[in-house]
């Protein structure tokens, strides 16, 4: 088991060589993350008004880092205005014991002590031109202030909570070694167990999510909230060239179950959202669980790289 996790960290470090760690990443092709305030209508795409993100730092990294938030305020250029901006969003950074290991932190519907750990910093944003279309920094942060997880290094948690109001706060995140620019932290990553995001407006666009399949998983259930019949969802993996989902709809939620084969264990999946019509301002919430209901993490830097289907060439021998 220890050997597996060492290999996992090496794969993350190798795959991280090209891009800084940002969520959404260029590979994901997602415009923005989104969190709505408490008085919003659930049919606007955010089912619980809370998003939780984790930042993993390898244990051998000793230099301080920054958690950066792009366009943290509620108003201005990008955010979703619902009859006048009137909203607040609170961003809180946690480290220490329980920041990641507490089960409530990893549920798709955060309840109970999801804000476990030691509160390191917090800030609440309303409509503020000083933060519109600009980066805000939490930091510098000492890596050892995180929760040490053997398989991940030091882990920090960012809890984003919609407060008063009904608007949608659209933002992006970065894990950076610099306060002035997005500079990668070697081997670092950003992950979440529930992904709430804005889809592209353009027909034909493809968004990607990269969950990691660990040992013991035999099936996964994709849960999509408020997809609005925008298009189709398919899965690419080392063993799947493009498995289409068969979504079973119940009210505003759609689910699809997929079997996991042996070759997919310890690899990432590429869950693709393929838009087949022009539509604006659609937000969706996505989670994936295994056969016993445990949430899988989405990594902005897919572990082992973006999965590619392995073509198998069969050779038929002529019979004599």
Structure description:
The strands form 4 sheets. Strands 1, 2, 4, 7, 10, 12, 15, 18, 19 and 22 form a 10-stranded antiparallel beta sheet that branches. The relative contact order is 0.22. The chain has one helix at 2-15, and strands at 21-23, 32-36, 50-57, 65-70, 89-95, 118-125, 135-141, 147-149, 153-162, 168-176, 189-192, 195-198, 206-209, 212-213, 219-225, 231-236, 243-244, 248-250, 253-259, 267-268, 270-275, 283-290, 298-299. Mean pLDDT is 90; it is low at 1-18. It starts with a helix and ends in a 21-residue tail after the last strand. It has one domain. It is mainly beta and 320 residues long. It is built from 1 helix and 23 strands. The protein is globular. Helices cover 4% and strands 38% of the residues.
As a percent range, the share of helical residues equals under 10%
Structural class, judged by helices and strands?
mainly beta
What share of the residues does DSSP label as strand, in percent?
A: 35-45%
Overall body shape:
globular
Radius of gyration: 20 Å
Question: Unreliable stretches, pLDDT < 50, 5 or more residues?
Answer: 1-18
Give the end-to-end Cα distance, rounded to a whole number of Å.
49 Å
Helical run tally: 1
Question: Mean pLDDT, as a whole number?
Answer: 90
For the biggest sheet, the summary is: 10 strands, antiparallel
**Domains (count):** 1
Give me the count of strands. 23
SSE order, one letter for each helix or strand: HEEEEEEEEEEEEEEEEEEEEEEE
